[in-house]
From TrEMBL:
Domain (Glycoside hydrolase family) ranges: 96-360
Keyword terms, alphabetized: Glycosidase, Hydrolase
GO biological process: glucan catabolic process
Xref: InterPro entries: GH, Glyco_hydro_5, Glycosyl_hydrolase_5
Protein name: Glycoside hydrolase
GO function terms (MF aspect): glucan endo-1,6-beta-glucosidase activity
GO cellular component: cell surface; cytoplasm; extracellular region
Tagged with keyword Hydrolase: yes
Gly residues bias (residue ranges): 14-24
Family per record: Belongs to the glycosyl hydrolase 5 (cellulase A) family.
The keyword Hydrolase belongs to this UniProt entry's keyword annotation: yes
Biased composition (Basic and acidic residues): 1-12
Superkingdom per UniProt: Eukaryota
């Protein structure tokens, strides 16, 4: 019977994206006692993220903040070019002024007013190391001789995290550039056009040491929702092994870093990394896949009309199916770490730019809010004329995307009554299915899990600042661990977990109307 159940378990409602006993967990994140409220840290970690990137605040991109690159050396494609052109003393002055002024208190207040609850903060190893206790890890890197330029960056990043906390905003810290460069783009710190990280075992070992140190530092903050190990890494045979080594190294340290959610860029190979990460994740190993989705760069993008891009992301279109399948495999632990409403002129085909961007942008906000654990618009602001494709201020002002990025603003008043009704229906469906497959019983664990999941979702909404649980599978695994610890039968913990996850998803569906 146990073998029979294990084969059928994943079929219930399309599977559960990991399992309470699966994965390669190397730590045991503390699960809250049953009936107890989620901690503030749990709420930050698990709530659905309606976010924006703070691009070119620390890791610079010339197309976003071109004024900083006026004195840079050609090709003016990376921060190193700026250093070569300005020299250390002038560069330090320019950069520190930029760090102090690019994002201000008005920006934080505006983000809060728009319903944004999380920011993705791209930083580079050279922003972290010089001002930290791990400065020796700069040795042997391309930026070693410029360490003094960046000695003030890390204290400012810490203040940014603290400022975000004061506004109730979470922070996803993203290692946007690693020693040697993890991809061939200038935003990885160099303009060489080479992904040198993968040609150097020394750079890879050093990057893992940097990630260990960075995880220890950022895990001290309740509002840091996670650490992204690499931004847009080049897809190669070494990436998965690098991720495995980095995860183990971070988890074995113990302490807060052991339970810090780790975000893994999928290198545009979503199916592979969704399947792999689902097997690695567990109640003590919170892992999230980050997929970046743009539709303005390839020849196919250019020749596809804006309404077709939007159609593919709605009502069972191919893009929606891709994301829904990966999200289900991962139990909701999937984000779109970068997206925009930008389109190539070839996609307009008779539409105005604003009209085309609005169709594409609003299709994205609706789909991402429904399917994923979170999404982050690229980017908050950029220099130059208003730009509804890349500038969130402009996009909301023009109505290209809605204020709040699709975040629900209201909930019905009769939440307890609705929960009881939804729980009864879910239990009936669950019981009928499993009774007809030879697993008869009262299925009380499922009912208990559903009750706990609805209660938690209600708490996230009512007492957690009108937030939803976005990472439903991970939270359900965490609750199932608590259930087992308090005497629940580990052999049927999957029923409790299924009930908890279904309740969360039913609550979120109710909010979406």
């Amino acid at each position: 019977m146990k073998k029979f159940l294990s084969k059928l378990e994943s079929k219930l409602d399309g599977g559960s994206g990991g399992g309470s006993g699966g994965g390669s967990s190397t730590s045991s994140a503390p699960a809250p006692d049953l009936g107890s409220q989620p901690s503030q840290r749990h709420m930050y970690y698990h709530r659905k993220q309606y976010g924006v990137n703070l691009g070119s605040w620390f890791t610079l991109e010339s197309w976003l903040t071109g004024s900083l690159f006026q004195g840079a050396k050609d090709p003016k494609g990376s921060e190193m070019d700026l250093l070569h052109g300005l020299g250390p003393e002038k560069a330090k002055q320019v950069l520190e002024s930029h760090w102090d002024n690019f994002i201000n208190d008005g920006d934080w207040k505006w983000m809060t007013s728009q319903g944004i609850n999380t920011v993705r903060l791209p930083i580079s190893y050279y922003h972290f190391l010089p001002g930290s206790s791990s400065s020796k890890l700069m040795d042997g890197t391309e930026y070693e001789k410029y360490a003094s330029v960046y000695s003030g960056a890390w204290p400012r990043i810490q203040r940014a995290i603290e400022t975000a906390a004061s506004h109730g905003i979470g922070v996803l810290v993203d290692l946007h550039s690693a020693p040697g460069s993890q991809n061939t783009d200038g935003h990885s710190g160099l303009s060489t056009g080479k992904a040198g990280l993968w040609d150097s075992s020394k750079h890879q070992k050093n990057t893992i040491a940097i990630l260990q140190a960075l995880a220890n530092e950022v895990a001290r903050y309740d509002n840091v929702v996670g650490l992204e190990l690499l931004n847009e890494p080049k897809n190669n045979n070494g990436l998965q092994g690098f991720y495995e080594d980095a995860i183990k190294a971070i988890r074995k340290q113990g302490g807060p870093a052991a339970e810090l959610p780790l975000y893994l860029g999928d290198a545009w190979d979503l199916n592979h990394y969704a399947g792999w990460v689902a097997k690695q994740a567990g109640p003590g190993n919170f892992l999230v896949v980050d997929h970046h989705l743009y539709r303005c760069f390839t020849k196919e993008d250019h020749s596809t009309q804006a309404m077709e891009h939007a159609k593919r992301l709605q009502n069972g279109g191919q893009t929606q199916k891709m994301l829904a399948g990966a999200a289900n495999t991962l139990g909701g632990s999937l984000i779109i770490g970068e997206w925009s409403s930008a389109l190539n002129p070839g996609s307009l085909q008779g539409q105005s730019q604003d009209e085309a961007q609005r169709a594409w942008g609003q299709a994205q906000t609706g789909s991402y809010a429904s399917l994923l654990g979170g999404s982050f618009f690229w980017t908050l602001k950029k220099e130059g004329a208003p730009d509804g494709g890349w500038n969130l201020y402009s996009a909301i002002e023009k109505g290209v995307i809605p204020s709040g990025l699709g975040r629900p603003r209201q909930a019905p008043g009769d939440l307890d009554q609705r929960g009881n009704h939804a729980g009864s229906q879910a239990l009936e469906s669950h019981s009928n299915y499993w009774n007809s497959h030879g697993a008869k019983g009262d299925h009380r664990p499922f009912s208990d899990g559903f009750q706990q999941g609805w209660q938690d979702a209600n708490l996230f909404w009512q007492q957690g600042g009108q937030n939803q649980i976005g990472f439903s599978g991970q939270w359900a695994m965490t609750r199932a661990e608590g259930w087992k610890r308090q005497g629940g039968d580990g052999g049927i913990a999957w029923e409790y977990e299924h009930g908890c996850r279904q309740a969360i998803e039913a609550f979120n569906q109710m909010l979406r109307g």
